[in-house]
Amino acid sequence: MDDPTSVEAKTHFVWADYAIFSLLLMTSLIVGILAGRKGWKKGSTRDFLLGSRSMNPMAVALSLMGGVVSAISVLGNSTEVYLHGTQLWMNLIGCFWGSLFVGFCILPVIYPLELISLYQYLDLRFKSRALQKMGSMSQVFNNIFYLGICLYAPSITLSSVTELPLWASICVLGILCSFYITLGGVRAVVYTDVVQTSVMFFGVLAVIAQVSSDLGGIGKVWATAEEGKRLEFFNMDPSPFVRHTFWSVQVLGIYFMASTVGLQQPQFQRLTSVSSLKHSQSVLLAFVIGLTFIWSLFYFSGLVAYAAYKDCDPLTNGKIEKADQILVYLVADKLGHLPGMTGLFVAAVAGAVLSSMSSCATAVAAMIWEDFLKDIWIFKTMDSRQACNVTRGLSLVTGLLSIVMASLISQLGTLFQAAYTIGGAIASPLDGVFIAAIAFPWVNKVGAIAGFVTSFIFNICLVISKYYLHAGQTKSLPLSIENCIVNETISNSSLDFEPVMNNSSFVMQLMNITTQDITQEQEDRFVHYIHTYIYIYIYIYIYI
């Protein structure tokens, strides 16, 4: 008879984990089908992609949160606080100021135009289909790369804790997501996001509550973080070379809201799926309030991890290979002995990933239809129902394409990540185009195209130089291993983490693939917002 404490037994789901994870998948499927039924009779692209602008504002706010809060937030925010303290927490204040910019500068211009693709605005503003297609195409490719990463993360997790091979895990999750977005469109995405966001929130909350209780309560966690010099909120150093200061995280928060929430197609579809501009602004306000709670939860989880390992850092001690693994290691170490906790945490991460994936898939379908296909002669003669069927087909193809991209990730490795990084470098020039278009009426078509191309080339050169020179790296706050036990084993755990790591278990694979170095991606955000404001400055200087 097999030893129940064997490595194999420890690296796989138990019945409670299967039940929780299966419940997430089945609920997402059922909710997606039921939510999409209302739009089946209407059969229009506007209903399929925007919900006929009749969506429930509260559901849209939760969906917006689910689409924006990805695995990078779940796992990366905690890592950042664990290594560098709580200064980043103050970016929530910047998010508030950024939401005012989006709500009162961007939405009043964009919402009344009743657009389906955000990039249609570029054609309306600059009278340039070329600029519209250039911007849309860049984001289509960027979102397709992101879809592959989104799908691969939970798939490698699922295959590592169950008997499913990797290819089967990719197909199961990819087909599931493709099925409900194809049938229900944005309605299915919004209401499944509500479920997935709830699972994400309560999954992380359960981890924090249980570990905090084991450590002596929230007060003990906070006191331990203060002793370890992790509490810092008002570092007023104006130097741009300090990793986080109060001023830099304010700019980061403002840019995050303007770029990610105000000027990205997935979020644009949600903000314009409600019945009025006032409701859209209310959705944005609810989103900011919800984001404050859920990001605070993620930030606090970093303090919990520090309190748990203040005298025996698993990174320094060699228990984990990357700092990004700290939260998953915490679950494996402290909560693995509790039936269902591993399944709940994996479901939380998968929920974050699937909500982002479904958002991107519908966004890609909208951009391809509106910006490229709709005006082609063969599609011009179609009635609304036929056009809707085409967009359903585009959603299905996009979902299936994500399966192909996920399968390629393990083969392409760093090449795939480099392509995604280059795609991300396009974001700030596009942000500059939109902000210049809205705020500076004297900017013309020639200037917009020239500025976009020049800024993109500048970004690519900067990204290549950054990686070549290994720039932008900063030291973490002190970590200790003074109380580590030599050759220690993890107690009270159903996951023996070192054997799990050596056997490429779900923990190692999740962390290596989900983020591809999350902290690096967070640093890149600073590079992107600097590029945006340089771009706008050049516009003003040349064309004023």
Chart the SSEs and their pairings.
Elements: H1 7-10, H2 15-40, H3 45-50, H4 57-68, H5 71-84, H6 91-110, H7 120-126, H8 129-161, H9 166-215, H10 218-227, H11 246-262, H12 265-271, H13 277-308, H14 326-335, H15 341-373, H16 377-380, H17 384-412, H18 414-425, H19 427-439, H20 445-469, H21 497-502, H22 506-514, H23 518-543
Task: Give a quick rundown of the structure.
One of its GO terms (biological process) is sodium ion transport. The chain is an all-alpha fold.
Give the tally of β-strands: 0
- Our count of helices gives 23
Helix-strand pattern = HHHHHHHHHHHHHHHHHHHHHHH
Largest sheet: none
Shape: globular
Radius of gyration: 23 Å
* Average predicted local confidence, pLDDT: 80
Helix- and strand-based class? mainly alpha
Helix content: over 70%
Task: Tell me the β content.
Answer: under 5%
Distance between the termini: 80 Å
Assembly context of the chains: single chain
Low-pLDDT residue intervals, each spanning 5 or more residues: 1-11, 487-520, 540-544
Explain the overall architecture.
This protein is globular. With 544 residues, the chain is mainly α. Residues 1-11, 487-520 and 540-544 have low confidence and may be disordered. 74% of the residues lie in helices and 0% in strands. It comes from Meganyctiphanes norvegica (Northern krill). This is Sodium-coupled monocarboxylate transporter 1. It is found in: Cell membrane. It is a multi-pass membrane protein.
